[in-house]
Amino acid sequence: MKLRAGRYKQNTDKWHVDATYLRVEGRWCYFYRAIDKEGDLVDVYLSDRRDQATAEEFFKQTAKTSGIYPEQITTDKEAALYPAIDSVFGDYTTHRDYKYMNNCL
Hints:
It contains two helices and five strands, in the order βββαβαβ. It is an alpha/beta fold. The chain is globular.
């Protein structure tokens, strides 16, 4: 299941990313989202799984939708995001992982 954000504004190259568990139409799903440093939604993704492959799909979709490879991504220390960021963005993107710094979402 995929949801996409509209492209009303040009997104910036610093993202905050998180995943949460929520109920959609009676079933539980993982909701991934990326917010830029201005507080604008970059992209969202719904999935039945929460693993590296799903995180990679989310990052590939987000980069394609926004047309931006971020210089910096801040996450809340979710283990699946570490290898996914390295796999999709490589050395281009800096990964910051502070538990409470991601609370701007």
